[in-house]
Amino acid sequence: MNEKILLVEDERDIAQMVAYNLKKEGYRPVLVHDGSFAPLTAAKEKPALILLDLMLPGLDGTEVCRRLKADARTARIPIIMLTAKSSESDKVLGLGLGADDYVTKPFSVKELLARVQAVLRRAAGPEAPAAPEKLKAGTIELDAARVEVKLKGSPLELTSKEFELLKALMASDGRVLTREALLERAWGVDAASEIETRTVDVHVGTLRKKLGREGARIITVKSYGYRFEA
Ligand code: CA
After folding, report:
1. Alpha carbons 109 and 112: distance in angstroms, whole number
2. pLDDT by residue (tens digit) across 173-225?
3. Which residues lie below 8 Å from residue 51, measured CB to CB, with a gap of 6+?
4. If you measure from the C-alpha of residue 91 to the centroid of ligand 1, how many angstroms do you get, rounded to a whole number?
5. Which residues contact 46 (CB under 8 A, 6 or more apart)?
6. 4-124, CATH topology level
7. CA of residue 109 to ligand 1 center, whole Å
8. How far is the CA of 158 from the centre of ligand 1 (A)?
9. Domain limits, the chain
10. What's the pLDDT tens digit per position in 86-116?
């Protein structure tokens, strides 16, 4: 508790409403209204979580996110993006910027606080039970211990969620995994009830694209989930 949360939001009434409610829950909000101040403030304040609006003066949210993830001092701080439309949210996740979650405006305070709690718990929580350290299928090689994936022998850049999804799918021995099960593996048990299962589809979509031809190994099982064809 008492975790510091950096809130980057130019709409002052939203910023104040969110800050008020964060305080009420025992968090310590730090407010920034201009995107260009966000990276430095994050490096200085070291918040436990960043709530980042997408449309900002100075620097927009995607650029702020990119800079935060590129800086060793802030790269590991979880980020929840605040976006105006769910189509923007898909884009944010699809860009592979490393945001952990998103909330679409207008959001309810209750929903936002649930996401905040879930992301913080996940960041602090114990790791999921260990999967085999090295997994291989076709030209895909996954090394769980080194958090590395190679495709045809070359390193493949995946976001943390794409990596966790691929690991869960490859470790499942061809069994079908429901979207809920995949949410649990990649986002944590506590978060699974609070994040939309559609989020899994978005990340599986970007993962498939990055895997190229090997992406066909991830098979959609209609109205159930996904299966990995080794
Ligand atoms: Ca804005």
Report:
1. 5
2. 888 888 888 888 888 766 666 777 788 999 999 999 999 999 999 999 888 88
3. 5, 6, 7, 8, 9, 18, 79, 80, 82, 112, 116
4. 16
5. 4, 73, 77
6. Rossmann fold (3.40.50)
7. 17
8. 28
9. 4-124, 134-228
10. 777 666 665 677 788 888 888 889 889 999 9
Average pLDDT over residues 114-143: 80
Name residue, tokens 């899994």. Answer: 200
E strands present in the chain: 4-8, 28-32, 49-53, 79-83, 101-104, 134-137, 140-143, 148-151, 154-155, 177-178, 218-221, 225-228
Q: How would CATH label the architecture of 134-228?
A: Orthogonal Bundle (1.10)
> Whole-model pTM?
0.57
Sheet holding 28-32, edge to edge: 28-32, 4-8, 49-53, 79-83, 101-104
Using CA atoms, how far apart are residues 91 and 202, in angstroms rounded to an integer? 9
90 C-alpha to center of ligand 1: Å?
A: 17
Partners of 102 in the beta sheet?
81
Q: How far is 31 from 6, CA to CA, in rounded Å?
A: 6
Distance 194 CA to ligand 1 centre (A): 24
Residue 53 CA to ligand 1 center (angstroms) comes to: 6
Separation of 89 CA from ligand 1 center, angstroms? 14
Considering all CA atoms of the chain, what is the largest pairwise distance in Å, rounded to the nearest integer? 53
